[in-house]
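Human: I'm a chemist; would you kindly supply sequence and structure tokens for a protein?

Assistant:
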Amino acid sequence: MTMKLLKAAERGDIAALELHLKNGDDIAYVQKSTGLNALITALNCGNEAAAQWLVEQGSPLDQVSLATGMTASAWAAFNGRTEMLQVLQQAGADLDKTGDGKGRTPYLIAVDHGAWAAVRWFWSAGVDLQRRDAQGRNAHDLLVCSGRDVPGDVLERVAGHAAAPPTGR
């Protein structure tokens, strides 16, 4: 029955999600073959209303997808969904948790994928802007290596964080 919960999240069908939970489905269910839960599925499919509803119902916020190594916050950052990042932060998600198999936090994922609105959102979110990934790269390193056309304000601010003394986190 829990696969139906994931299918409802995939469709963004809140009424079906509610029915499945009422009938005893586990909100923390993780599909073995993909490692996805309902919250990550809803975010991955762009169903923000369903994702927000799942957060309100107590979905695990920092669960890591076994297939991608990404958390819900990492998916929101990857897709530049600042509203969902705000919802996840307010619900208590760990926005500094390594968000993928490369040791990147959601902030570093946003930087690496050119999700500029999310990058800017993170600047005031209280996350560690100097974190490094598993290869020792910080946000500035990721920008320099990307070859992307980076907005001037992003490049300037990220370079400033790279040059600043460590925050001691």
About this structure: The chain has two domains: 1-60, 69-169. The first helix runs from residue 2 to 11.
